[in-house]
Amino acid sequence: ISDIENIESIEPYFEFRSTGFLIDQGKAYNAVELEIIRNGNLQTIVFNNEDQHTNNLVIVPYYQEQRLEKQVLFNFSDSHSDNIYLSNHLAKQLAVTENDGDLAISIEIGVPVRTTAIEMTVNEHAESSGLETKYTGDIDCSILQKLRLPIAGVLNPGVSSTFTSQGNNVIYVPVSLMKQYQQAARAVYELQNEGQPDDPANPATLQTKEWRPSAFIVYAKSYNDLGTIMRKISSVDSNLVSKSNFQDVEAMNQMLTNVKNTITWISLIVLLIFIVLMTIIFTNHVLSRNFEAAVLKANGLTQGEMLKLILTESLLNILTTCAISVVISLALTLLINKLFNFTLLQFNLLTAGQLLLVSALAILGPTLASALTINRFKPDQVFRN
Asked: Do residues 241 and 261 share a domain?
């Protein structure tokens, strides 16, 4: 997948959960204790799967492209370089406030180190009717690890993790730090089980295999590349399923079309106003030079030479106006594409040519008409007036 073109980044997705399966004990666990330390005071809260108020807690990775630092409700006075954040829902559960100057959380939570195969049966009571369905898959096998997490801030209420199904009690940790925690847990597990390989002949031994992530988060360089990347991912392996954060790509494309059409109409209106203003300005500019033209003609300048002089000045004005328009258009294109985070507008040679044509029409037309008008003036009439 990483070889596919126009991919900005690809990272694994995995979770540390308050419920799961312990590899060393061979059984499930459904509760963890969280110790919150604020201003030196310790408080313990139990997250139990059987409690509807504090049922689950999950630690999830977040990625640089998510820009969570832009969605912080409040930071604590003691800023931390790790940038670990609490969901707004979890902060309320822990009664965290903006006045908690130095906040840290200590928790013993399940960290996945291996996987084991499982078989699930759907409609197991319908075996006789042939409606029974069996599925095979892998589940994470975890060990409990004590983690101390310095909290940098609390996120806005509108921020929610779209990747987890474990509820809203979420701690967001940078993916690089999550990988460090998991590597440390795997090292602990391997050290504890050094020289004790799985014994397939022993039914009491839990059969496990190397841990691999079951999902990856892929960021495209541009929204325009999204459809192509999703198709290429699906072609790598028929078992791979790719989903977009944009729930309805067609609706998104329709919205983009509407935005482009709106920008086009606004540009046409601005262009029309620009042409009218330039026509008025350059017509008045040329007509106001009738005395100068009369002096030049009185000193022997022919009508053709007079026209050539004015058109040469117009050419310089056209090139100057075109250059300024190119710079402004390029800056606006980069700014709009940066705001939308994908290529909404394009600037190319055709765009530059259109700007040159518009500049020529806006300047050359009124200048030429005014020059022909001036050429009909006689010097003696101008001097008398």
From this structure: no
Based on the domain organization, do 228 and 278 belong to the same domain? no
Angle CA 161–165–169, to nearest 5: 60
Rounded distance between C-alpha atoms, residue 383 and residue 113, angstroms: 98
Do residue 106 and residue 11 come from a single domain?
A: yes
**Residue 209, C-beta contacts closer than 8 angstroms, at least 6 positions apart:** 114, 115, 116, 117, 138
Give dist(CA 26, CA 198) in Å, integer. Answer: 13
Same domain, 188 and 273: no
The closest of 244, 246, 271 to 256, measured between CA atoms, is: 246
| 258-292 tens-digit pLDDT | 777 777 777 778 777 777 777 777 667 666 766 77
Report if residue 1 sits inside a domain.
Answer: no
Give the count of domains, the chain.
2
Residues 199 and 285 reside in one and the same domain: no
d(CA 257, CA 236): 31
Identity of the residue numbered 352: A
Q: Are 375 and 307 in contact (CB under 8 A)?
A: yes
Helix (H) or strand (E) holding 54: none
Backbone dihedral angles phi then psi of residue 220, each to the nearest 5 degrees: -85, 150
On whether residue 102 sits in a domain, the answer given is yes
Range of the domain at 205: 7-245
What are the pLDDT digits (tens) for 132-182? 677 777 888 898 999 999 988 899 988 888 788 888 899 999 999 999 999
**Global pTM value:** 0.62
The separation between the first and the last C-alpha atoms of the chain, rounded to the nearest angstrom, is 81
Q: Which single residue is written with the structure tokens 């999902």?
A: 215
- DSSP characters over 286-334: HHTTHHHHHHHHHTT--HHHHHHHHHHHHHHHHHHHHHHHHHHHHHHHH
